[in-house]
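Chain A, query sequence.
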Amino acid sequence: QVELVESGGGLVQTGGSLRLSCAASERTFNNYPMGWFRQAPGKEREFVALISWTGGSTNYADAVKGRFTISRDYAKRTVYLQMNNLKPADTAVYYCNAGWLTSTTPGDYWGQGTQVTVST
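Chain A, predicted structure.
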């Protein structure tokens, strides 16, 4: 069964950093774009970042540009989201996503989500 398993969420103060990880259960994910979406309470799920299957191209939501960095490790079948200078507005459940995703259309595969809470 295909799985995406996230880790790294938690509670952090404004201005702090966290790194999210998403490990894929199958090597086939190395052939797909991977990315992150998030959903805050009472809001719709929104795009955060994605990385191409080659790793040579990335795309970020305007709200996180310059603060978040997405990367991937093919040997570990893992995608990372380094989040710096966190703000309370970043508080959300973060979901790993894989497949033929774009900034407007998620792929077919989702992780279970990891909570990120940024305190003032």
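DSSP finds no helices and eleven strands in the chain. The mean pLDDT is 95.
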